[in-house]
Task: structure prediction
Amino acid sequence: MTSCRDYHALLGMHALGRLPEAELATLLAHTDGCPACRAELASLDQVAGALGHANPDRVAARPAPPPWLRDSVVAAVGVRHLNRRRRRRLLAWSGGLMTAAASAAFVVTVLVSGAEGHTVTYGARGMQITAELAARQWGTAVNLKVSGLDNGQRYLVWLERADGSRVPAGSFTARGAGATMELSAAVQGDDAVALGLSTVPGGPAVLRAPISG
Result:
């Protein structure tokens, strides 16, 4: 059964004068019996008419993206990179374990990364965090364990540079007694002096744990 949602794209094309004639009769038949789509088409016609008066030369300056956008995008890419690598390791380990079980003998090998890192601990007012920081080519991986935070509250995690600027490392919502998560920040560990949590972007730190050299 055709619904109004099926006609949304056609409404926009009609307002711009680009709707093929083969579909025009179908759309007009629908709008004749649908007040909602008829009103939306009228609104789109007004917008399309105003576009003709737009003059790009009168724009004083092109809008610039906010300064935190680049770090947020790089951090998100880092998290996805970590998740993919964990899945590959898990699949490889599972496949090797099944093969070993079939042959009735197996050897387990643990590989430890030699990259330098830091462990940060913090405890105050019932809150407790432990963060393991590991250097990566794209920045710093953050293995974070938290407890004692307000249940249901969303927290932003960041690493602080020496100049006081914050580099986003991700966010989480506190659930139950505690949580463990893998995050990432687009800053090298040697450039970070503290790890912190806040509840709003740029807001006061709920906690701030210095990173020793």
About this structure: The radius of gyration is 27 Å.
